[in-house]
Amino acid sequence: MALPTTISHEKLARLIGTPACPVLLDVRARADLQADPRLIPGSKPRDWERVAEWGGILRGQSAVVICHDGHANSHGVAAWLRSQGVAAEALEGGTSDWAEAERPMVPIDKLRNRDAQGRTVWVTRSRPKVDRVACPWLIRRFVDPDAVFLFVPPSEVAAVASRFDGEAFDIDDAGVFWSHRGELCTFDVMVQELGLATEPLLRLATLVRGADTGRPDLAPEAAGLLAASLGLSRIYADDLEQLDAGMLLYDAFYRWCRDASDETHNWPTNRLKGKA
């Protein structure tokens, strides 16, 4: 029987990728993390032994605590967090059951560039349109909610990435890992490399590719995504303000891909049968 201080895999899976997702804390022991060096999407490793030091930062927030089997560390850490004013739950079955259910997991070795606060740092060209908004959305919703994005002139991307130990992305440079590959755009590459190839994200990737590479034939919705993206780029002169606005745009397209792609909308709805 589920406890009131636990959350099921099914419920957490519905929350991940949405603005309503709680803070996800991976408190596995080092040996368990080394045995399976992957993270549940959106989660961040935390030292369970130092919860008294970092727990207070989360006061007033909701959190899900994740360990290897749902017992080793999660209940104790969750209880400690609750004592510090955090609405904390433990994930039933931990990463072990999550992986056994073949749910997506993010390989840790793909997330090398972090600042002193543990945030991943990403650098790309200024004045984003499609890919350079879609990729940050994917990272913040499924990889690192606290990720830092630096938008700079194209000629400065490599130097800034090196100077701030950031990861360059979506730039035409043979040495850049996170960029277009053949017909795939950077969003496609991130979905695949980060272990996020679920049906909804693959469908969204098709829309992004169609909008980003001039292929509206890939999906009818691609033209609408491009139009909305270009509109946002005209509304906002500040790249970070545009990204904030774009987060809602991609939240909506993701939920459509996940939950509403079969739904239609007709007007008028109350027309009497046989009436024109």
Q: What percent strand? A: 5-15%
User: Which class of secondary structure composition applies to the elements?
Assistant: alpha/beta
Please provide the ordered H/E string of secondary-structure elements.
Answer: EHEHEEHEHEHEEHEHEHHHH
Which radius of gyration do the C-alpha atoms yield? 20 Å
Number of strands: 10
Low-confidence stretches: none
Query: What general form does the structure show?
Result: globular
Helix content: 40-55%
What does this protein look like?
The chain is of the alpha/beta class. 41% of the residues lie in helices and 13% in strands. The protein contains eleven helices and ten strands. The protein has helices spanning 9-15, 30-35, 51-54, 74-83, 94-100, 131-142, 157-163, 186-193, 199-212, 221-235, 239-260, and strands at residues 6-7, 23-26, 38-39, 43-45, 62-66, 87-91, 106-107, 121-125, 148-152, 167-168. The strands form three sheets. It has a five-stranded parallel beta sheet. A three-stranded parallel beta sheet has the order 9-8-10, with helices on one face. The longest helix has 22 residues, at 239-260. The chain is globular and about 50 Å long. The mean pLDDT is 94.
Please render the helix and strand layout as text:
Elements lengths: L5 E2 L1 H7 L7 E4 L3 H6 L2 E2 L3 E3 L5 H4 L7 E5 L7 H10 L3 E5 L2 H7 L5 E2 L13 E5 L5 H12 L5 E5 L4 H7 L3 E2 L17 H8 L5 H14 L8 H15 L3 H22 L16
Parallel strand pairs: 1-6, 2-4, 2-5, 5-6, 8-9, 8-10
Antiparallel strand pairs: 3-7
Helix pairs in contact: 6-8, 6-11, 9-10, 9-11, 10-11
